[in-house]
Each structure stands twice: as C-alpha cells, then as structure tokens.
Amino acid sequence: MPDLITNNWQSLSPLAQDSLWLALLLLPTFLVGMVVLWGFRPQALVGALLWRFRWTNLTFVLLIAVSVGIGVGLIAQERGLRKGTARAADKFDLIVAAPGSEITMMFAAVYLQPSDVPLLSGEAFNDIATHESVDLAAPIAFGDSYRDSPVVGTTAEFIRHLSGGLAEGRLFAVSGEAVAGSSVDLALGAQFEPAHGVGDAAEEDAHAGTELTIVGRMPPTGSPWDRAILVPVEVVWEVHGLVNGHAPDRSSQIGPPFDPDFFPGTPAVLVRAEALWANYALRSDFTRDDMMAFFPGAVLAQLHSLMGDVRQVMSVMAILTQVLVTAGVLTGLIVLARLFARRLALLRALGAPGRFVFAVVWTYAATLIVAGSLTGLAIGWIAVRVISDVVTARTDILVRATLDWPEFHLIAGFVSLTVLLALLPAFMAMSRNIITDLRA
Amino acid sequence: MSLPLHVESLSVRAPNGRLLLTCPTFSAAPGDVIGLRGPSGAGKSTFLYALAGLQSTMSGKIDWGGTDLAHLGDGARARFRRETIGMIFQDFLLFEELSALGNATLATAFNGADKRRSIRKTAEGFLERLRVPKDRRTVDSFSGGERQRTAIARALAHDPAIILADEPTASLDRDTANALIADLIDLTRSEQKTLIAVSHDLHLLEQMDRVIDIADGRLLSEAALA
User: Fold this and answer.
1) In this predicted model, what pLDDT tens digit does every residue of A364-401 receive, in sequence order?
2) What is the pTM of this model?
3) pLDDT tens per residue across span A271-292
4) Membrane-spanning residues where (chain A) (predicted)?
5) Are residues A281 and A199 in the same domain?
C-alpha cells in the first residue's frame, strides 16, 4: 500500500504535487471550519464585531502579517540568492588554480571578489592548455580596476564563452583594447586608465600611461562580470612590468598559444572540456601538488548545503516566530473576547447554542489569521522584490527572488496550525457564565 | 403556541452555593401580563433569568407547558429559549454595527434554514408595526425608543410564547416608555403570549394583570396597585 501511494505520488507532475500539498496543508482549516460553522451563519455578527474593534483588529492583522511576511520573505530571498549565485557560476565549468582555498578562489574567479591568491606557473598552464581533452583554457588575471569595475585579463575565447556573443562592438584584437561588461558606464570608443588594486586600496596612478579603449560590450550575464572590463591578459602582465606570455619575436600576439617560458603566471584558469564527462577526468588530472582543480558548482553546492541547514533553521524559526506572534494575538483575543463577552452572553440568552458562540469567536480569530497571512504574503512579495533589487545592486549577482510553492506551503501550514490554536479562545468564550456577563 | 407556567419549590443558588432566591409556588397562564417589582438586589432579575433557564444552579420545578427547565441540560434550555422565549433587556443590548433588521433577525444566524425565512418575515412585520426604520442605518444612530423597539422586534421575531423583559423602560423617557409599554402589552394580549416584566416603572406596573413583589430573594404575595 505505501508503495502504491509512493508510486502514484511520483507519477504526478510537480505542479500537481505542490497543489496537493497545499490542499493537504489547508485541509485542517477547512475541516475545522466546516465542523465549527456547520448549520450556522455567523458572518454578519462577526463582521459587526470586527468592525467595532477595527483598530485593534488591524493591529492584530498587521502583527501577523509582518511576522508572516518576514518568514516567507527570508525563505524566498535565500532561494533567490541560491539560484542567482548558481546561475552566475554556470559558465565556469572547471577552475584550475594554485593550491589553496577553493572557496576563496571561487569567490575571486567567479564572483570577482578582491583576493590575494598565488599564481599558477607557465608550465602548469601549458599542461592544461595542451591537454587533449581541453577545449578552452583561459587565464583569468584579476587585481586591477577602473572606478568600481574590476579589470580582468583573459582571452577573447573566454569572452565568447561567457557572453555567448557581444551585445555591441567587437572582441579585442590588440593589446590596447577592452570589452566592457553590460553595466560598465563606458561607451564604445571610451578610453580609460586602469588602477592597481581594487576598491579603496586601488592605486590610481600605478599604471599611468596605459590607455585602453572600449571596443565591445557584453550582454547582461546576471553575474559580477557585468560590472567587469575585460582586457587581453597580456595587458595585465605588461602593465605590471612582466613579460606578456609570448616570446619576444611574437610579443604583439594576443591570446593563445602562450609560451611557458614567458608566462608570468595567472591566478586562475577556466577550463572547459569538449565533453561534459571529460571535466571529471580533467579535475583528476589537474589535482596535483602544484595546482588544484575544482568545479565551482560543486563548491557552491557545498555552500548551499550549509545554507540549506541554515535555511531549515530559518524556516523553523520563521514558523516559531509566526506561531508566537499568533499566540500573542490569540491571547489578545481572549482579552478582547471579554470586551464583547456581554454580546456573546446576549446570544446565549436569546437561545444561541454554546457551539454558535464558539463559532463566532473562532470565525473572528480565523478571519484575523487568514487576513494577516494574506497580507503577510503581499508584504513578503514586496519585500523579496525590494531586497532582490538591493542584493543585485550590491553584489552584481542577478537575484530574482519570487514567492513560490514552499512559501505557500509555509503559510498554509501556519494558517492550519493557528486556526487550531484559535479553538482555545473560542472554547474559553463558550465556557463563560451567561448571567455574570449579562450583568457586566 | 401558548404555555402555562408552574413554578414549585424553586431555589436558585450562585455558583459559590449562596442562596439567591426561593419561590415556593408561582403560576401564570397564557395571555397573562405580570409585573415583578422589588428593591435592587431583591432577586427580580434572578427570578426572570431562572424562568428563562439561564441560571445554572437551581433546584425545584419550572414547568413551561410540560417542559421542566430546571432539569434540562444547557443545550436543551438554549433550544427552549430559541423556540419559546423572547427576552428584552434594560439597556437594549443591540449590536450597534448592525441595522435594525440585522438586529431583529439575529436569530437567523443560529437557527436552521427552515426557520430563517419565517424569522425574517416576522421581524420585518414587527419592525413595521413598531415603527422602527428599516433602512440600512446602523442602530448606533437610533434614539433610545427606536433601540428598545428594535430589541422588542428581536425578542418577538421567532414568535415566542413567552416574553421576559428586564426593566424594558428604564432607559427611556416617559413618553417613549408609555408608547413602548402600550405596544408591548398590545402585542402580548393580541397574540396570547405570556409577558413577565421586571420593572420599577409604576406606569408599566399599573397596566399589568398582576404584580408580584420580591424581597430578600423571596417571592411575596401579589401586590395590589391603586
């Protein structure tokens, strides 16, 4: 029997599974609602009570809404960030670098975060570039900048691989040319002088006299590379007073092949195999004493796995916070119910069954909970839009967080749990002494 | 429906056990209009609430046409009130955010679908008869007289055989109170109902068939009103 259920469940589409989950999570709410309201029509009365205490109710709704909004917003944002970082690393199949921290190297080479890393030798680069399975081996030399744009030395093939074709202009052909990322504030034909280092530590005049001209622009990639200016790697070496990767008789050459004897070193190399499976063999081949090879996607997956644990903790904390807020609201409702205890006693005096009074108070509480949750959904939606824009602006990683099924499931679970909690004030209201309340 | 009332050896106690009221015997016939009077705290409202089956701790017999309320459970008492008793309170006890019709048809919220239509129809009839505005205005804008007449329409909407009124004119001015008393007694007599009203209002009591004095939690003899 369990196998039958499992097999049937797995045969459903993801949409059907998510929809069913939502329905299952909301089922307790509907069941309780049906049982509590069976045979009664308390809507007009509840509406009257809600209106009478509208400002208090609005406060309750906002309290629930903010806690729900924060909860779903955090979870959606974390997922958006995870997808954004994964998308940004998508083009980086295999990174080879000098031995060190994979995470540091990934942040430096993929997300262009400033970092001091050891260089990979010309001999090592040659081994990579000449490997029979390697389709693309592009040096990635970072460390310089122009304003807030990192200036990265690489090859034209890498730009082609990263961008899938330029949005405008052409690839660099000589050492004085550069290609701008989509969000770099330099027009085609504009000239600039790179600084040594990045950020506040950048030395503006260190490379004085090196004029580079923008000749092409990449389309948006949704990654920090949109903010980068890509130059021939030879330029980076030359402005640092190093040999430019080629023998003197070929010193004007741009791009591969590089001469190992004249290769000054590179922080990282992007490697792409002809076949996807071959990347695994390359990782093995390039994991040696003098170099390390890693899949940024795998490192990211480890980070995400760690974040996944944090996410679970966050989810539990979000639910706990929401439940605590709702418990506070329900406690407030118990107090509020005393304010309209005389009206409830009146209903009993007029012959309303105790279960009707129970239904009135429960419907009142459930209305606040559902209204708060729906408002929270809207708050969460707005929050993820705003936070996504802020994160994208600050990290250049395109984050497109949206509310999705997990958030809907979270809210559905929250609603079901709290409407069950709402049975408590309803029960307490039903148990009050009619005469005492009538005379209050 | 007309229900004779017979009360015998009734004693009502507070939840803490304190004796609130005793009544050796008391009777009323359909069409009777009876007043209850006495000083504050004498037990008038306690007796009225006992007749409605609202007192939780009581012994003896409260027999309304064969139904002994004193020995019914909460649910059965609520059903009896729902079907047989109309209650009117001193300070109206209306839902201020509802219209007159909304208040008068309050019982449709907890009565079965079969009764909702008749309750609504009866309520509309009484509102018209009692000259209560039937527009969408909420009753918080009503005068005291309009409010109490709305409360009467609510009490009569389910066509109860018994009307129990607790100080129905206490919150009203003289003219309004007089008009209301006239309406209430006229309705009761014309429909062969039983009206029992707690009141300090001499004008109201003068129009009652009988007035019962209550003092120190005991029903005394019927009083003669000059």
Assistant:
1) 999 999 999 999 999 999 999 998 888 888 877 788 88
2) 0.80
3) 988 777 888 889 999 998 889 9
4) 20-40, 60-77, 313-336, 356-384, 408-430
5) yes
Of the three residues A294, A320, A350, the one that is the final residue of a domain is A294
pLDDT tens-digit readout, A68-80: 898 888 888 888 8
In a domain, A6, yes or no: no
Contacts of B186 (CB under 8 A, 6+ apart): none
Query: Residue A1: its pLDDT value, please?
Result: 61
Answer yes or no: do A265 and A357 share one domain.
no
Is there a single domain that holds both residue A124 and residue A176? yes
What is the rounded CA–CA span in Å between residue A108 and residue A102?
A: 10
Residues of chain A with Cβ-Cβ distance to B159 below 8 Å are: none
Q: What is the distance between the terminal CA atoms of chain B, rounded to a whole angstrom? A: 33
Higher pLDDT, A336 or A269: A269
Query: Which of A44, A350, A433 is closest, CB to CB, to B87?
Result: A350
Pairing of strands A229-232, A177-180: antiparallel
Do A276 and A325 share a domain, yes or no?
Answer: no
Domain-embedded: residue A357: yes
**Distance, first Cα to last Cα, chain A:** 59
pLDDT for residue A206: 63
Instruction: Look up tokens 């081996």; give the residue.
Output: A137
Query: What ipTM was predicted for this assembly?
Result: 0.91
Q: Which residues of A touch B16 (CB under 8 A)?
A: none
Chain B contact probe: residue of A36, A339, A346, A350 with most B CBs at under 10 A: A350
HEC sequence for A161-204: HHHCCCCEECCCCCCCEEEECCCCCCCCCCEECCEECCHHHCEC
Average pLDDT, chain A: 88
**Least reliable range by pLDDT among A114-118, B3-7, B113-117:** A114-118
What is the CATH classification number for the domain harbouring B140?
3.40.50.300
Would you call the peptide bond into B133 cis, given omega within 30 degrees of 0 as the criterion? no
Find the mean pLDDT for residues B148-174: 89
Q: What is the CA radius of gyration of chain B?
A: 17
Say if A54 is an interface residue toward chain B (CB within 8 Å): no
- A246 and A186, same structural domain? yes
Kindly report which listed range (A423-427, B183-187, B215-219) carries the lowest average pLDDT score: B183-187
In a shared domain, residues A217 and A282: yes
Question: Is B99 part of the contact surface with chain A (CB cutoff 8 Å)?
Answer: no
Instruction: Provide the 3-class DSSP secondary structure of residue A131.
Output: coil
Question: Domain containing B125: what range?
Answer: 5-223
Q: How many CA atoms lie within 13 A of A273 on its CB side?
A: 21
Q: Choose one of A275, A294, A313: the last residue of a domain.
A: A294
Print the domain residue range for A348: 14-87+303-438
Helices (H), A53-91: 54-88
Indicate if A232 and A326 belong to the same structural domain: no
Task: Answer whether A51 sits within 8 Å of B52, measured CB to CB.
Answer: no
- How many structural domains is chain B composed of? 1
Q: Which residues make Cβ contacts (< 8 Å) with residue A49, sequence separation at least 6?
A: A340, A343, A360, A364, B97
